Amino acid sequence: MEQVIQVTTSDYSEKVNKEGKAALIFVGDVLAETGQSWCSDTVEAEPTIKNYAIPQLQQKGYTVYWCWAGDKETWKDQNNPARVSQWIQIKSIPTLLLVHDNKEAIRFEEEQLFTENALKQFLEQ
User: Fold this and answer.
1) Alpha-carbon distance 45 to 71, whole Å?
2) Interval 86-114: pLDDT, tens
3) What average pLDDT does the segment 6-29 reach?
4) Burial of 49 (0-12, 13-18, 19+ CB in 10 A)
5) 58 φψ region: left (φ > 0), alpha (ψ -120 to 50), beta (else)
6) Whole-angstrom Cα distance, residue 97 to residue 94?
7) Cα-Cα-Cα-Cα dihedral of 69, 91, 46, 6, to 10°?
């Protein structure tokens, strides 16, 4: 994932450039035992995100942030910074949030990220 900035839910708000266009991709952390995320939806969406969405977004001038949501316990905590943020309020993972000049432009969640279909309508305009 060249040129993708990796952040966590606890530090994304300080690291995300809120000017211009940003794509924030929230996913579950990877388990050392399996090499895959604990979140089955993240596992299913990851190929579409990495092989389709990220290249398309970068081509369109987005700065892409890969936001680790934490292990299952951290993510499920109702006080998780991404959940309680007034700015983004992430309710599920994976989530792809496109931001234009500090305002949400569009949000794709869970099964919308499993295939390219939902993304194509927006990204190939």
Assistant:
1) 17
2) 878 899 999 999 988 888 889 999 999 99
3) 80
4) buried
5) alpha
6) 10
7) -30
**Which class for 101: exposed (0-12), middle (13-18), buried (19 or more C-beta within 10 A)?**
exposed
* More confident of the two residues 8 and 44: 44
- Strand bridging mode 95-100 / 103-109: antiparallel
Closest CA to 3 of 67, 70, 54: 54
Whether the predicted model's global pTM rises above the 0.70 cut: yes
- 3-state secondary structure (DSSP) of residue 31: coil
Find where tokens 């989530």 sit: 95
Half-sphere exposure of 2 (CA within 13 A, CB side): 3
Residues 6+ apart with CB under 8 A from 121: none
Cβ atoms of 66 and 7 closer than 8 Å:
yes
Residues in the chain: 125
Please tell me the predicted confidence (pLDDT) of residue 4. Answer: 86
